[in-house]
Amino acid sequence: MKRKIIAAILCAAMIFTAFSGSAAAEEAAFSGTDSLSLMKTLGVFPSDVIPGEALTRRELAQIFFRIIMPDMAEEEYIPSESRFTDIGDEDFAANFVSDIGIMNGVGDGFFAPDNRVTYAEIVKALVCFLGYRDMAEGYGGWPEGYKRCGVKFGFAKYYGGDQSYATTDAAAALFKEAIDVNLAEILYYTNRTESTIDLGISYLEEYMGIYIREGIVSANYLENLYTTGKTTNFDEIRIDNGLYLLSDGALQLKEYLGCKTRVYAKQRSINDTPEILHYEIRGTKETKINCENIISYSNVTGILKYYDAKNRQAEFNIGNAYILYNNSLCESYGEETINPFSSNADLDGYINIIDNNSDGIADVVHIRAYKSYVVSKISNSKIYVKYHPENVFDIAELKDGELAVKNVVGETIALSQLDSGDIISVFIDKSGEIREITVSVDTYSGKVEEIIRDNLNPTEIKLDGKYFKFANRLSGENQSSTDIKTGTRIQVFFDFNGRIADIEKDAFSSEHLGYLVDMKPDSVHLRENVYLKLLTDNDEMLSTKLSDKVNLNKVRMDDTSAMVQLGYTNGSPMKRQIVKYIYDKETDCITDLTSVDESIDQSQDGFYKFQNLTAGMLNHYRASTMSFKGKLLLNAATVVF
């Protein structure tokens, strides 16, 4: 077995003082869920550990066993004769850590496997495990010497107090911090003096074969910052010049081209490409600038001017950075590349600036420019889109792994998963090649309440009390957004950035004003339908039926109940009245009705009298919803034919 136990552990007999289970111990609050996730991914902690739970001495022993003997199951370990009377044959890990001196009993021959562990106990066990027992003893021994040693190693920021019980999250944070402490070994000389040397290796690498590397993500399957044309396979990246395989949990790292990262990697065998198990983006400052906030770029000075999140003018030096236009490296570029949105008003997008050393100078600049469409159909490896039939995207030569097709959270999806009704945002590089497609499925249907315009061009819309921004392609003059009318119902399609990419104006019938002339049930059929006649605001007579379920004054009910509430009585003439209605052409029925004469004073016969109508306001009805097309007033006595 290719593992060595550090000499400091083998040579020392540790006294692991009790305190576990002490009534004086208190709960300590701690948040370390990210650390716990990392420890599970790397195999340091079992996958079934529950966040926030108390950690027992048995569980702590099992963690050390997993680290030191990662290739051995507990039952394969043959311990020396146990010196504890309160553990069974199944507690191999407890015997193991006792044998090598990381943990010991609590006195009187007990290990107390079910006792909860305090912060002080975990810190002492880690100090001994890492090989620094003599240093801690030199600082004064238990407990202050070990605590001082823990402070030196950065454990203090996770310290909940000596006698506070540690949770699984807190323990994971301590084990994560210990990764950055190199293991030590004690060397003994003939004169019985000793010396501690730094082995320059982490416990992950020594025992589990997991090593840590930091560097810049320099290449992925789409581009290489350092060597033109030297891309990787779909599930690989380069960090600086080293090639790495991406595990399923680390696939997203390929989207961080140009960013500084820290990776935890393992080489399964000597000829295998190291596999990244986990990654962290470290030391990278990203600045995202939406296209509408870009002011200018000077090719002479390399300065990009823009408005920041507080609408203040700011600037960034990007003159010496790697420039990627839609994932394609640009060897030469000008203002039309850095700010393509100024010359093409139909483009949406943003600029993402990466500064890996916080010096205010860009290292990598991603220009992300796209247009969005609603998929109509996919046929013969071509994507056809609604509303803009002039755009057809040929994907016949593209394969999974050669084109970035992602959902809104950045997960890779197959081309075969694209479907009619999906919204695609298409990223095309300077050579006209499709480099990326981001797919979203979000839509919304509602009534248009307000349209906000800038120089007559619509920029935002209010639907059912909610405001939504138009994509740039819909904000231009003579586009499909310009002829939307308030009061109409529309369906909108959102791109991955949450902007309206397209509009379906005919998906719903609009609300209209009409005069209800007649309404009655049809008794001929087994299931009675409610039929009605309406004089429409297009000067036409509409004969149709109510939907089986209808919204009357915003209350959902069946058609018969709606007919009764609107004044129908068997054998009596229908009460004629002005209504607002929505007519569904597809089903040939009325789905919504709203009475508009509820505020009319019905005390006198003849023409309706509006409440609070005073002399000089005789034309008031022209501006009222209770007038008919602003031309005349109607009541139950009006004859319509």
Summed up, the helix count is 13
Give the proportion of residues in helices. 10-25%
**Rg:** 36 Å
Low-confidence stretches: 1-32, 188-193, 598-632
**Structural class per helix/strand content?**
alpha+beta
Main sheet makeup? 10 strands, mixed
Mean pLDDT: 80
Shape: extended
Q: What is the percentage of strand-forming residues?
A: 25-35%
Distance between the termini: 100 Å
Count of extended strands: 35
What features would you describe in this structure?
This protein is an alpha+beta fold and 641 residues long. It has 13 helices and 35 strands. Helices cover 15% and strands 33% of the residues. The strands form 8 sheets. Strands 10, 14, 15, 16, 17, 18, 19, 20, 21 and 22 form a 10-stranded mixed β-sheet that branches. Mean pLDDT is 80; it is low at 1-32, 188-193 and 598-632. Strand 28 and strand 29 (529-536) form a beta hairpin.
Give a quick set of tags describing it.
35 strands; alpha+beta; 641 residues
Topology:
Layout: H1 7-11, E1 26-27, H2 33-42, H3 57-68, H4 92-99, H5 119-130, H6 133-138, H7 144-152, E2 164-165, H8 168-178, E3 184-188, E4 194-198, H9 203-208, E5 210-219, E6 236-239, E7 242-246, E8 260-266, E9 275-281, E10 285-290, E11 294-297, E12 303-307, E13 313-317, E14 322-325, E15 328-329, H10 335-338, H11 340-343, E16 348-355, E17 364-379, E18 382-385, E19 392-394, E20 404-406, E21 423-428, E22 434-440, E23 443-454, E24 457-463, E25 466-469, H12 472-475, E26 489-494, E27 500-504, E28 511-522, E29 529-536, E30 541-552, E31 555-558, H13 559-565, E32 577-584, E33 589-595, E34 600-601, E35 609-610
Parallel strand pairs: 1-2, 7-9, 14-17, 20-22, 30-33
Antiparallel strand pairs: 3-4, 5-6, 5-8, 6-7, 8-9, 10-16, 11-12, 12-13, 14-15, 16-17, 17-18, 17-21, 18-19, 21-22, 23-24, 23-26, 24-25, 26-27, 28-29, 28-32, 29-30, 30-31, 32-33, 34-35
